[in-house]
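Minutes, project check-in
Item: structure for the 232-residue chain
Input as provided by the requester:
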Amino acid sequence: MNRKIGIVILPLLAGVLLLPAGCSKTEASSPVVESMIALPEPVHDSDTSVEEALLGRRSVRSFSGKAMTLAQLGQLLWAGQGITDPSGKRTAPSAGALYPLELYTVVGNVEGIAPGVYRYVPKTHELAKVLDGDSRKALSQAALNQPSITQGALDIVIAAVYERVTDKYGERGTKYVHMEAGHAAQNICLETVALKLGTVTIGAFEDDRVKQGVELPSDEQPLYLIPVGHPR
């Protein structure tokens, strides 16, 4: 009987040991089979200059209810954490290139994709489905019932795995994570202007309720909620 037990356990151990190098804790704990959705290729130029985007960036809290497109969603996620170099470097600078951030989108009204919660996969520019259904109301309730979260066509949630950075940089790494989250959020805001959309960055929310509503893994902490939509 002991031999049979050994035969079962060893392959499981081998599976753990053979995880790809650099696989994050989140990736390692993800289901083996995920429902993946390819995003349209991001564009790398536009009619809006960086200066124009900076000039036009304002907080928008009221949205028309008009649907966004899958291409617009993909462009926003690429702006926040997209790959910009064959080495894997991204749109936002990261201390030690450790990339602690995870981006999620709570989709309510986007053409070509069902309402649900999706995790952005930068390496392949895809979405991995986390939850079915429109979770904007639950997310709004976790954020003091702010109406912009339900009015926006989607909400972007920026979360972080602090240990990816603090394991190397200690307590100082926490500051680096917060700096990186700010870089990513500003990228999203400027891209929103270029897409003629509106957005606002929100930090007033109950962490545990956001984690529950989006089903974040235990090691991921929410830092930003960013509703996006067509301005009213």
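Outcome recorded: The two ends are 69 Å apart (CA to CA).
No further action items on this chain.
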